[in-house]
What we know:
Layout: H1 23-50, H2 55-82, H3 85-108, H4 114-137, H5 139-142, H6 148-177, H7 179-199, H8 215-227, H9 230-260, H10 265-315, H11 319-347, H12 353-381, H13 384-404, E1 437-444, H14 450-467, E2 469-476, E3 483-490, H15 493-503, H16 506-516, E4 526-531
Antiparallel strand pairs: 1-3, 1-4, 2-3
Helix pairs in contact: 1-2, 1-6, 1-7, 2-4, 2-8, 2-9, 2-12, 3-4, 3-7, 4-12, 6-7, 6-10, 6-11, 9-10, 9-11, 9-12, 9-13, 10-11, 10-13, 12-13, 14-16
Amino acid sequence: MSAAVSSSKPLTPDSPWAPLAARVFRALWIAQLVSNIGSWMQTVGAQWLLVDDNAALVTLVQTASSLPVVLLALPSGVLADRFDRRSVLLAAQFAMLAVSCVLTVLAFTDALTPVLLLALTFLLGCGTALMGPAWQAIQPELVERDRLGQAAALGAVNMNLARAVGPALGGAVVAAAGAAWVFAFNAASYLGIAAVLALWRRPAASSPVIAHERLLPALYAGRRYVWHAPGVRRILLRTALFIPGGAALWSLLPLSASRSLGLGSGGYGLLLGAVGVGAVAGAFALPRIRRVLGPNGTLGAGALVFAGVLAVLATVRDPWSATVALLPAGLAWIGVLSTLNAAVQTRLPGWVRARGLAVYLLVFQGGQALAAPVWGVLADWLGLTAALLVGSVLMLVSAVSVRLWPLHGTEGVDPSPSDHWPVPPLVFEPGPADGPVLVSVAYRVAPGNPAAFTDAMARVARSRRRTGALTWGLYQDGNDPARFVENYLVASWSEHLAQHHTRLTATDRRHEEQARGLLVPGTEPEVTHAFDAASGPVVPDTADGSTGGAANRSPGVTPRRADRPSRGAGH
């Protein structure tokens, strides 16, 4: 099982099922389906054990499973970037297996109280939080980059197919034998993923590249990358605008089933199953929908559909009408999720992929965790109908906002690594912790190009900051207006070497080449590296008595900052 992307049978490239041709992806997809069915069976069992209590307690099941993402997503992203992602996933599977076994034993012995149920659900959520970034980050290793959209859609199909089967099966098992048996099935479901991961021989080239980084600097590097990546930030904004209204459906559906529609656990499972059936059926239509509407149109249409579904649930009292109304909700959910997921995976480079995905999962899952109890309180305070209508209004706001804050295009975005910087020619060998390091780059800009050059350097600035620069500035020589000096500060020499060899991407290289294309023909930028000498010289004297030149200062530069570059769409 070493050839992750090897195909057993060729499929049409734009087929929604094309990623299943990759053997490891296919095996993990099937194992994940079984595990997701177990998770949905457990969700139904847990919520139904609490349905006779108040609404807020029922919605706390979703909060208990989602809140760990808020607390652990970023550290989990660091672990997935720092250690072998396969090992991280295996550890998460066995941890969740152990917790599920405890939950099963307590349920069979009638010792499971609401507090224990929520606490163990929280621990299972911790396992999910640990697994999430690593799981998302290995997807580009399993399928080709141009199939990530289909892979993301298949992931959503997987979840919704489980939603179509798991809740109905869970409701039937709860009604026939009790909740303890659904907890037992969920415990056994973790073994499939563990078996596939144990057999997968992950290529050595996929090993993590930040093993030398400590936790806090690695966390800061992930936050810094996301903050200086406008395209990723826009994806997070679109996620944050969709999730609160979307969480209303999942949080209030069990209450709608029991209070408005008069259904039992089996009926509730069928309602969730309708969402799953809609998602699976929608997978066939999604490629065509994307071609017609584009990514932003898909987001807007998905929000509009969700708004309509919530409005229907707020007003109808017929179970069959509600079931039919939930079918397009599955299509809308899979459309939005796969669009956002593919967009963020397409933009993130390997060295920070898990941390960037952790931030995305933090917004996605954390938004659900924070919104769920709010919907429960609103249902108790305003009534279930009013709470569903408020959710419908929020989804309308999300749909309208797509025109104001659309996703950025991905044309020209290439996150593949690019080791194109030459080795710095220094007169001594710095230690990894030496720093901070001031990097200065002098450019000679061709006549008529200064304005275009500063615009181009705006994208270079974001590249420097994403890959490690703490500060950045562009200055124009007061004695020689054609001469511009770029200064940026990096925390340590090891951080700067990481910029050289592991963090730069093909997109970063293209931005640098665009800026250099505006220089005087035949000239090259002059690069110097200066080390902090406040506590004494860091470069030993040379044999002739002169100093090796740690500062390498550029004469004649007055501290007049060039006009601030305009902000482009950039990566």
